[in-house]
Design brief:
The protein is built from 16 helices and 13 strands. With 387 residues, the protein is an alpha/beta fold. The protein has 2 domains: 190 residues, Rossmann fold (3-Layer(aba) Sandwich), CATH 3.40.50.2000; 184 residues, 3-Layer(aba) Sandwich (Rossmann fold), CATH 3.40.50. It has a 7-stranded parallel beta sheet, with helices on both faces. Strand 1, helix 1 and strand 2 form a beta-alpha-beta unit. Helix 2 runs parallel beside helix 3. The longest helix is centred in the middle third of the chain and has 17 residues. The protein is globular and about 65 Å long.
């Protein structure tokens, strides 16, 4: 039977890709159509983790020899295929170029899941040299991979139109979500001690790119009309951000809350939630807020989970949100605009029928993205490439 290795960060590392890989690999294992997963875990510099037995090899992010040894291990093993979970910040070298050393040495089929896909001339590139280095990495991944998986049609369009990757090699498989029951928020609120509150929430690892300051600035006028409102900001600071600047961003947000007299209406949960805790807090949520500030983002696990739970989402129009929330499945607000966020909150809280309509559409769409369905699509692709 087919045996697959997943090259990725992995739980318990606090990282969105690690959580994604754990969810995906375990969901594929549950199908019982291929052998149990083998994880090749990427460790960030200076870190080590207490991994489960499914982790068969560890790679030090910044040591190029570590990638070569990992490729040798796979080549000499009974593993049939490697699924690379790719994010540029996950691998060592300029734009994660150490990954290419691993891919070029490998003699097994490779499926690369690309979590971020940038236009070749994106504003994020500060110099032409940086853009060229990024583009070399993308082209190197494409050459080495038997197939590429992306999560949106926009990402597939970018890879084909701007990097010349063959359409037949690109597969659109959505980000997965747990199979949530469609339930009212009241029981979960009672369990979490949030009775009588109108709950807004934002989940995820904190960094300035999340734009949470704009959501906080949107609240004072709304609180006058809905004094029971409570905005939950749930998640620890991103580990790489914390290494570079500590808790500077979180402290800035807390000062903003104090300055706007919102201490009774904003609550920080400085914890990395387990999946069960995340599900419970999502079920208690009345409106999910996603105020990201970068247009280029092409995936978001927390937005996917909120949609899967049937929650009305107010989001800035980054590429992933534009596609996921199309056809009235959510409300798009302007970038860096507290007023636009507050207008969106009003639309939902002052119009229960509209809120219920969006919840229904969101939940129905989320059913096509549950982890068992996503896992089945990956398993079919793996089997196709190895047959």
């Amino acid at each position: 039977m087919l045996r697959v290795a997943y090259l990725s960060s992995y739980s318990p590392r606090q990282c969105g890709i690690a959580t994604f890989t754990a969810d995906l690999s375990k969901s594929i294992d549950n199908l019982k159509v291929i052998e149990p997963s083998a994880i090749m875990a990427i460790n960030d510099p200076g870190s080590s983790y207490n991994y489960g037995k499914e982790v068969v090899w560890q790679i030090d992010e910044d040591e190029i020899a570590s990638y070569e040894k990992a490729a040798d291990y796979i080549n000499s093993s009974d593993l049939n295929l490697v699924n690379v979970q790719h994010e540029f910040g996950l691998f060592g070298g300029t734009w994660g170029e150490y990954l290419l050393t691993f891919l070029e040495k490998l003699n097994k089929p490779i499926v690369t899941t690309m979590h971020t896909t940038l236009f070749p001339d994106a504003k994020i590139f500060q110099t032409s040299e940086s853009a060229d280095a990024h583009n070399r990495v993308v082209n190197g991944i494409a050459r080495a991979s038997s197939a590429i998986v992306v999560m949106t049609n926009m990402a597939a369009h970018i890879l084909h139109e701007y990097y010349g990757i063959n359409k037949d090699e690109i597969n659109v498989i959505p980000h997965g979500t747990p199979s949530f029951p469609f339930v009212p928020s009241t029981p979960a609120k009672k369990e979490l001690g949030l009775e009588g509150r109108t709950v807004l929430s934002t989940f995820g690892l904190l960094s300035q790119d999340k734009g949470i300051q704009h959501a906080i600035k949107a609240l004072p006028e709304i609180v006058k009309e809905h004094p029971d409102l409570l905005y939950l900001i749930i998640g620890v600071t991103h580990p790489q951000v914390r290494m570079g600047e500590g808790e500077k961003y979180r402290k800035r947000l807390m000062r903003l809350v104090n300055r706007l007299s919102l201490k009774e209406n904003v609550r920080f949960h400085n914890r990395f939630l387990s999946k069960d805790e995340l599900i419970k807090y999502l079920q208690a949520t009345d409106v999910y807020i996603c105020p990201y500030i970068k247009k280029e983002q092409l995936s978001s696990g927390t937005v996917t989970y909120a949609l899967g739970a049937g929650k009305p989402i107010i989001s800035t129009p980054f590429y992933y949100a534009e596609e996921l929330l199309a056809e009235d499945r959510g409300i798009l607000c302007k970038f860096s605009s507290p007023k636009s966020i507050s207008d969106g909150i009003r639309q939902l809280l002052d119009n229960p029928q509209k809120k219920a309509h969006i919840e229904k559409l969101a939940y129905e769409h989320g059913q096509s993205m549950t982890w068992p369905r996503v896992a089945s699509k990956y398993a079919d692709l793996f089997k196709e490439l190895t047959q």
